[in-house]
Amino acid sequence: MGIAPATDTTLGSDLLAVVARINRLANQRVRLPLPFAQARLLSTIDAEGRARISDLAALDHCSQPTMTTQVRRLEDAGLVSRTGDPDDARAVLISITPQGIATLAQVRADRGSAIDPVLDALDSSDRETLAAAVEIMRGMLATY
């Protein structure tokens, strides 16, 4: 089942659908050192720098108790650490550890390798177009 070419009115939904399918393809073809949901959370913590559990829960659209459980699993694995929030003595900040950074780098490399055969099959013009599109998307994220 293919995907029809995007129109101006469907570009956003088409982009999200294709990215989701590529993510599924990568996840199906690789064995990660931790569950995908935990890898995604680790990536979020890495991107945020330091974050409160309530902020992570809001970003992930889940309850604070659910996020506390997920963070505890990452903490038990040595991938994140908790420190006191200097602005609020009642709160803690979650940050990624050096081991978490290494694990996340491995997850990203493994997932990238999983789709390398698909990318290798592209001609050089399509690869250049795709590389340009990735840069455009990075720019979009920088302003989002």
From TrEMBL:
Superkingdom field: Bacteria
Listed Pfam families: MarR
SUPFAM superfamilies (alphabetical): Winged helix' DNA-binding domain (SSF46785)
GO molecular function: DNA-binding transcription factor activity
InterPro entries: HTH-type_Bedaq_tolerance, HTH_MarR-typ, WH-like_DNA-bd_sf, WH_DNA-bd_sf
PROSITE patterns: HTH_MARR_2 (PS50995)
HTH marR-type domain sequence ranges: 8-139
Signal peptide as annotated in the record: none
Protein name: MarR family transcriptional regulator
